[in-house]
């Protein structure tokens, strides 16, 4: 099957302009493919480069060389406009933290990614309600902005939002961290559903049991870490 996500000989350095222009070699020669329906876990010690790699795949960090193909579009070469389109239609990102927009009701926060791809208001809200109910957000909170919600409630709203649109490619950054057992189970089944409909997923999971259950392969990112001078 053709890959949905394909990383080809990526190289990433950071230049510390405020520290004498020191160049840190973080990742080199990263090649990796993820097929539709497959979930790959990034592992490796703290500082190995897992978050850096995720941020590169989402287009937040620019690679020095190599290619990041998402559904055939190379993010390394793409114009900002193209990256925005890709994030809206193709590439989802779910972190543990919600970026709260003040005054927008929770229901609309969750429905928004669907509205953005042209889904009608009623259908988008129906899907949002379904996800909020699944993630045990009490109905009395749906019309309120999540600004004042607890950390756990915000995390679950963020997950609902992240899974509203069926992205063909998804990046998951610790999606089960600090959830209770029941909600963790809901998130794992959302991931399984996404795989079943053909999503290609890359994730960071410190939760080993979660990783073992939903991931098909593990990639230890330290294999891409250039030997660093002491
Ligand atoms: N913006 C940045 N500027 C300079 N160096 C950075 C930057 N971001 C990350 N690094 C360096 O890149 C290396 C990899 O960091 P990264 O956060 O990707 O690791 P990680 O594997 O996600 O670690 P953890 O499991 O602790 O989150 C570290 O040595 C870090 O200091």
From TrEMBL:
InterPro entries: AAA+_ATPase, ABC_transporter-like_ATP-bd, ABC_transporter-like_CS, CP_lyase_PhnL, P-loop_NTPase. Keywords: ATP-binding, Nucleotide-binding. One of its GO terms (molecular function) is ATP binding. The keyword Nucleotide-binding applies. Residues 5-229 form the ABC transporter domain. Belongs to the ABC transporter superfamily. This is ABC transporter ATP-binding protein. It comes from Marivita lacus.
């Amino acid at each position: 099957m053709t890959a949905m996500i394909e990383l080809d000989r990526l190289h990433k350095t950071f230049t510390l302009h405020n520290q004498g222009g020191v160049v840190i070699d973080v990742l080199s020669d990263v090649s990796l493919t993820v097929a539709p329906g497959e979930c790959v876990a990034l592992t490796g010690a703290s500082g190995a480069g897992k978050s850096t790699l995720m941020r590169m795949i989402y287009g937040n960090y620019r690679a020095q060389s190599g290619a990041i193909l998402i559904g055939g579009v190379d993010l390394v070469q793409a114009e900002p406009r193209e990256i925005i389109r890709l994030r809206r239609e193709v590439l989802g990102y779910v972190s543990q933290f919600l970026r709260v927009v003040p005054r927008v009701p929770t229901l609309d926060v969750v429905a928004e990614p669907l509205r953005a791809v042209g889904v009608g208001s009623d259908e988008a809200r129906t899907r949002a309600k379904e996800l909020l109910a699944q993630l045990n957000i009490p109905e009395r909170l749906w019309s309120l902005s999540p600004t004042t919600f607890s950390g756990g409630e915000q995390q679950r709203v963020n997950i609902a939002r992240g899974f509203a649109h069926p992205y063909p490619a998804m990046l998951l950054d610790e999606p089960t961290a600090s959830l209770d057992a029941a909600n963790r189970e809901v998130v794992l089944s959302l991931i399984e559903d996404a795989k079943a409909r053909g999503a290609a997923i890359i994730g960071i999971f410190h939760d080993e049991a979660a990783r073992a259950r939903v991931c098909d392969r593990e990639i230890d990112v330290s294999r891409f870490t250039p030997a660093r001078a002491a």
